[in-house]
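Thread: quick sanity check before group meeting

JM: Hey all, I'm pulling together slides for Thursday and realized we never actually wrote out the predicted structure for the chain we discussed last week. Dropping the sequence here so it's in one place. If anyone has concerns about the input, flag it before I start.
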Amino acid sequence: MSDKSGFRFEKLDVWQKSMEWVDKIYHVTANFPADEKFGLISQLKRSSLSVASNIAEGSGRSSAKDFARFIEIAYGSLMEAICQCTIAKRQGFLSADDFQYIYIKTEEIAKMLSGLRAYLHKTKKRETTR
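JM (edit): ok, ran it. Output follows.
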């Protein structure tokens, strides 16, 4: 599972980008109102953490089919997080600049997850025909 250069998921560009994205989410939520600690802050941190976590967990699965399922979960969490960012922007907790940055990064990660999912589906088909 691991070699001298780290775990398999650490080599994935999509995981690395999702980690940078999580860092940004944590940075911006530090400025949200304190009364959102158990509401929007908690929800947004949880959904953003889920993206990177599901990529990592899926990479440790034994089949492409299992990995693809975790990528689908990561994608869903990504969509949940951007919805929550939209709410934060509408409530005035998130600046237009921060929202734009997060939105652009979300689009990049979404495309990468979709590409990885498509690749895994092709791999899954090869696994089942053997």
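AS: nice. The longest strand covers residues 2-3. The mean pLDDT is 91.
JM: adding both to the slides.
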